[in-house]
């Protein structure tokens, strides 16, 4: 059912209201009326959304039309309803004051039917057009918001897929397994969860970017990467280049997961005391992502066998990490690790 437009007529003279209603019935409007500014404000307070136009007399006892208009325009629920002043006055000051207070038009009394019908129709159509435009703007903003979220989600999914492909490639060239990569991600996310400076977004980023920590090993010759036993000093110098090389592979991306992966690849071998590589960063100069992966990677590596070593006993691994608190590892992260040790052990020994 189509709802008729409703007009609020405010005048302390009942005959003026009756005349206006009789004329405007020709265009099939619905009406409410008030005999004072106070009564009009009460009607608007109760059901502001039902009115498309207000015809407001200026000269009324108590609250006059000007003050009533000011109060209507000061209310966020009624400020957009167009107001046409009804006045017997035609002096410039009264008309100007009406526009200053927010009226859109004025009509002089006694009414001329054609003038009243035309002006009311014009301002109701303008009001409807503004409301329709406002509605479409809301729709467009909502669409833009969700479209942006969809595109960001698709971009993140693409990044995750690329990370998965690259880590699969990395696994095929070394003795590291997908399980190692998954465990490092879970350990890193758990450390971030308990770190006071980390947000839920940081936890998510770390979980998905952590698998790229050793991406630079793709640039290390296979005979060194897969060499059994301990590295020679020369071999180790070549191996150390994987941190910087991994950073170079990823550094130009503007995507948040890849940017995080670039930081992690570059800094996960830095040490809290400044004796790590490749840049010898110290303390909080090392990005928190790098500090987290440094601990996560060592913990998992020590608890599992590699081509060049056997897995360590858990007590020995924990003691190793404790002894390097404030030297190799961020002391706050070691404290988190010890406080929640059972949860970390569950990850490496499910």
Describe this structure in words.
- This protein is an alpha/beta fold.
- 58% of the residues lie in helices and 7% in strands.
- It has 14 helices and five strands.
- It has helices spanning 14-24, 37-46, 65-74, 92-100, 113-172, 178-194, 200-209, 222-225, 233-250, 256-267, 288-302, 314-323, 331-339, 341-348, and strands at 6-10, 30-34, 53-57, 83-87, 105-108.
- A five-stranded parallel beta sheet has the order 2-1-3-4-5, with helices on both faces.
- Helix 10 packs across helix 11 (288-302).
- The chain is rod-shaped.
- The relative contact order is 0.07.
- The model has no long low-confidence stretch (mean pLDDT 86).
Helix percent band? 55-70%
Structural class: alpha/beta
Could you tell me the number of beta strands?
5
**Percentage of residues in DSSP E strands:** 5-15%
> Span between N and C termini?
64 Å
| Number of helical stretches of at least 4 residues | 14
- Mean pLDDT metric: 86
Strand order of the largest sheet: 2-1-3-4-5
Compressed to H and E, one letter per element, the order equals EHEHEHEHEHHHHHHHHHH
| Model regions low in confidence, pLDDT < 50 over at least 5 residues | none
Label the overall shape: rod-shaped
Largest sheet geometry = 5 strands, parallel
Cα-atom Rg, whole angstroms? 37 Å
């Amino acid at each position: 059912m189509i709802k008729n437009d409703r007009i609020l007529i405010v005048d302390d003279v009942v005959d003026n209201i009756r005349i206006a209603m009789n004329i405007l019935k020709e265009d099939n409007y619905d009406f409410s009326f008030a005999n004072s500014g106070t009564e009009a404000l009460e009607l608007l307070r109760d059901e502001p959304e039902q009115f498309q136009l207000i015809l407001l007399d200026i000269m009324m006892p108590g609250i006059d039309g000007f003050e009533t208009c000011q109060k209507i325009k000061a209310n966020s629920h009624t400020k957009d309803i167009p107001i046409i002043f009804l006045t017997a006055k035609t002096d410039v000051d009264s008309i100007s004051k009406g526009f200053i207070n927010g009226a859109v038009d004025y009509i002089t009394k006694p009414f001329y039917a054609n003038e009243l019908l035309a002006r009311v129709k014009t301002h109701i159509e303008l009001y409807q057009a503004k409301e329709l435009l406002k509605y479409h703007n809301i729709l467009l903003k909502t669409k833009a918001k969700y479209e942006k979220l969809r595109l960001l989600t698709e971009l993140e999914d693409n990044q995750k897929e690329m990370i998965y492909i690259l880590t699969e490639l990395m696994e095929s060239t070394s003795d590291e397994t997908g399980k190692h990569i998954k465990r490092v991600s879970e350990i890193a996310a758990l450390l971030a969860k308990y770190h006071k400076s980390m947000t839920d977004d940081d936890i998510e980023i770390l979980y998905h970017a952590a698998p790229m920590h050793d991406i630079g090993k793709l640039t290390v010759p296979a005979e060194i990467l897969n060499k059994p036993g301990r590295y020679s000093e020369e071999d180790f110098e070549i191996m150390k280049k994987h941190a910087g090389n991994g950073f170079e592979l990823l550094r130009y991306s503007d995507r948040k997961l890849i940017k995080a992966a670039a930081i992690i690849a570059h800094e996960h071998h830095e040490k809290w005391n400044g004796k790590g590589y490749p840049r010898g960063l110290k303390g909080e100069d090392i990005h928190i992502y790098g500090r987290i992966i440094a601990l996560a990677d060592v913990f998992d590596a020590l608890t599992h066998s590699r081509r060049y070593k056997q897995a360590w006993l858990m007590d020995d691994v924990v003691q190793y990490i404790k002894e390097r608190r404030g030297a190799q590892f961020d002391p706050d992260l070691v404290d988190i690790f010890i406080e929640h040790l059972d949860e970390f052990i569950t990850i490496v020994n499910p």
